[in-house]
Specification:
- There is one protein chain.
- The chain is an alpha+beta fold.
- Helices cover 19% and strands 41% of the residues.
- The chain contains three helices and nine strands, in the order βαβββββββααβ.
Length: 146
Protein backbone atom coordinates (compact mmCIF):
# COMPACT_ATOMS: atom_id res chain seq x y z
CA UNK A 1 0.00 0.00 0.00
CA UNK A 2 1.27 3.44 -0.92
CA UNK A 3 -0.29 6.65 0.38
CA UNK A 4 -0.27 9.67 -1.92
CA UNK A 5 -1.14 13.03 -0.43
CA UNK A 6 -2.79 15.92 -2.24
CA UNK A 7 -3.08 19.50 -1.00
CA UNK A 8 -4.35 20.83 -4.34
CA UNK A 9 -6.50 19.39 -7.15
CA UNK A 10 -9.01 17.59 -4.86
CA UNK A 11 -11.97 18.08 -7.22
CA UNK A 12 -9.96 16.88 -10.22
CA UNK A 13 -8.89 13.68 -8.41
CA UNK A 14 -12.48 12.95 -7.32
CA UNK A 15 -13.96 13.70 -10.76
CA UNK A 16 -11.39 11.56 -12.58
CA UNK A 17 -9.99 14.49 -14.59
CA UNK A 18 -6.69 13.88 -12.78
CA UNK A 19 -5.67 10.26 -13.38
CA UNK A 20 -2.01 10.62 -12.53
CA UNK A 21 0.36 12.58 -10.37
CA UNK A 22 3.85 13.84 -11.13
CA UNK A 23 6.10 13.76 -8.07
CA UNK A 24 9.57 15.21 -7.62
CA UNK A 25 12.28 12.58 -7.10
CA UNK A 26 14.43 13.43 -4.14
CA UNK A 27 17.20 11.02 -5.04
CA UNK A 28 20.74 11.57 -3.83
CA UNK A 29 23.51 11.58 -6.44
CA UNK A 30 27.30 11.66 -6.46
CA UNK A 31 29.17 13.19 -9.39
CA UNK A 32 32.74 12.08 -10.07
CA UNK A 33 34.64 15.34 -10.68
CA UNK A 34 37.08 13.74 -13.13
CA UNK A 35 34.77 11.70 -15.37
CA UNK A 36 31.53 13.59 -14.58
CA UNK A 37 29.87 10.19 -14.13
CA UNK A 38 26.64 10.46 -12.11
CA UNK A 39 25.88 7.71 -9.60
CA UNK A 40 22.58 7.46 -7.74
CA UNK A 41 23.32 6.88 -4.04
CA UNK A 42 19.77 6.74 -2.74
CA UNK A 43 16.47 6.29 -4.54
CA UNK A 44 13.43 8.37 -3.65
CA UNK A 45 10.34 6.76 -2.15
CA UNK A 46 8.60 6.67 -5.53
CA UNK A 47 11.18 4.32 -7.11
CA UNK A 48 9.85 1.30 -5.19
CA UNK A 49 6.33 1.80 -6.59
CA UNK A 50 5.32 -0.58 -9.37
CA UNK A 51 2.37 -1.49 -11.58
CA UNK A 52 -0.35 -3.29 -9.63
CA UNK A 53 0.46 -1.69 -6.26
CA UNK A 54 -2.53 -0.48 -4.25
CA UNK A 55 -2.69 3.31 -3.91
CA UNK A 56 -4.52 5.25 -1.22
CA UNK A 57 -5.12 8.85 -2.31
CA UNK A 58 -5.54 11.31 0.56
CA UNK A 59 -6.51 14.95 0.89
CA UNK A 60 -4.29 16.80 3.39
CA UNK A 61 -2.85 13.75 5.08
CA UNK A 62 -1.58 14.18 8.67
CA UNK A 63 -3.90 17.13 9.26
CA UNK A 64 -7.09 17.53 11.18
CA UNK A 65 -9.11 17.82 7.98
CA UNK A 66 -7.53 14.68 6.39
CA UNK A 67 -9.84 12.81 4.02
CA UNK A 68 -9.33 9.60 2.06
CA UNK A 69 -10.28 10.44 -1.52
CA UNK A 70 -10.11 7.00 -3.08
CA UNK A 71 -8.32 3.69 -3.43
CA UNK A 72 -6.83 2.83 -6.79
CA UNK A 73 -4.40 0.48 -8.49
CA UNK A 74 -1.14 1.74 -9.94
CA UNK A 75 -1.43 1.40 -13.72
CA UNK A 76 1.99 2.75 -14.68
CA UNK A 77 4.97 4.48 -13.11
CA UNK A 78 7.93 5.99 -14.97
CA UNK A 79 10.55 8.71 -14.76
CA UNK A 80 10.64 11.97 -16.70
CA UNK A 81 12.94 14.96 -16.58
CA UNK A 82 11.58 18.49 -16.82
CA UNK A 83 13.42 21.74 -17.30
CA UNK A 84 13.67 25.16 -18.89
CA UNK A 85 16.25 26.30 -21.42
CA UNK A 86 16.97 29.83 -22.58
CA UNK A 87 19.58 30.42 -25.25
CA UNK A 88 21.79 33.48 -24.76
CA UNK A 89 20.41 35.32 -27.78
CA UNK A 90 16.75 34.54 -27.12
CA UNK A 91 14.37 36.73 -25.18
CA UNK A 92 12.18 33.77 -24.28
CA UNK A 93 13.09 30.23 -23.31
CA UNK A 94 11.62 26.79 -23.83
CA UNK A 95 10.24 24.33 -21.33
CA UNK A 96 10.91 20.68 -22.11
CA UNK A 97 10.13 17.16 -20.91
CA UNK A 98 12.30 14.12 -21.57
CA UNK A 99 11.30 10.48 -21.29
CA UNK A 100 14.02 7.83 -21.60
CA UNK A 101 16.44 10.54 -22.70
CA UNK A 102 14.29 11.74 -25.61
CA UNK A 103 12.50 15.05 -25.72
CA UNK A 104 8.71 14.73 -25.89
CA UNK A 105 6.75 16.42 -28.66
CA UNK A 106 4.37 19.27 -27.87
CA UNK A 107 1.43 16.90 -28.47
CA UNK A 108 2.82 14.32 -26.01
CA UNK A 109 3.41 17.02 -23.38
CA UNK A 110 -0.18 18.19 -23.91
CA UNK A 111 -1.47 14.65 -23.25
CA UNK A 112 0.71 14.39 -20.14
CA UNK A 113 -0.69 17.72 -18.90
CA UNK A 114 -4.33 16.72 -19.48
CA UNK A 115 -3.91 13.37 -17.68
CA UNK A 116 -2.52 15.33 -14.75
CA UNK A 117 -5.60 17.59 -14.65
CA UNK A 118 -4.20 20.66 -16.44
CA UNK A 119 -5.93 22.26 -19.43
CA UNK A 120 -2.70 22.38 -21.44
CA UNK A 121 1.09 22.22 -21.26
CA UNK A 122 1.33 25.96 -20.48
CA UNK A 123 -0.62 25.44 -17.23
CA UNK A 124 1.47 22.38 -16.34
CA UNK A 125 4.78 24.20 -16.84
CA UNK A 126 3.58 27.32 -15.05
CA UNK A 127 2.56 25.25 -11.99
CA UNK A 128 5.70 23.07 -11.91
CA UNK A 129 8.04 26.04 -12.44
CA UNK A 130 6.40 27.90 -9.55
CA UNK A 131 6.70 24.83 -7.30
CA UNK A 132 10.15 23.52 -8.27
CA UNK A 133 11.98 26.21 -10.33
CA UNK A 134 12.71 24.37 -13.56
CA UNK A 135 15.77 26.47 -14.47
CA UNK A 136 17.75 23.47 -13.27
CA UNK A 137 16.43 20.19 -14.77
CA UNK A 138 14.77 17.86 -12.29
CA UNK A 139 13.70 14.21 -12.26
CA UNK A 140 10.05 13.38 -11.58
CA UNK A 141 8.05 10.15 -11.29
CA UNK A 142 4.74 9.93 -13.14
CA UNK A 143 2.27 7.70 -11.30
CA UNK A 144 -1.00 6.82 -13.03
CA UNK A 145 -3.91 4.84 -11.60
CA UNK A 146 -7.13 3.08 -12.52
Amino acid sequence: MVAINFSVFKDKVLSGKKRQTIRLCKCEYKVDSDSLKVTRLKKCRWHSLKKGDKLHLFWRQRRKDCEKLLEATCERVYSIHMGFKRDENEEYGTYWVKYQGKRLSDAAIGRLARRDGFKNSYELFRWFDAQYCLNKPKEFRVISWV
